[in-house]
Amino acid sequence: MKNYFEEICIRLNREIKIEHIDIVDNSHKHKKHKFFSPEKFHLHLKIKSLNLNSISRVNAQKMIMTVLKEDLKTKIHALEISIEK
Fold it and tell me: pTM for this one?
């Protein structure tokens, strides 16, 4: 799992200038939900990026979602994104 999160960081940093990123796995909070799958993650990305802060929140989130497009189909069930200043 840790390797997968590191892979996410590497791919995001390759496409977007990011100063710092924290990935919080909130999957355990959703175990009792109807469509919970242990193979898919509920993640919260906490990103510090001057680049993302210089554009609209919607466009910043679109950039992140584009990088993680395939993961959202296969490995990520829910994604919360916080772009911090």
Answer: 0.85
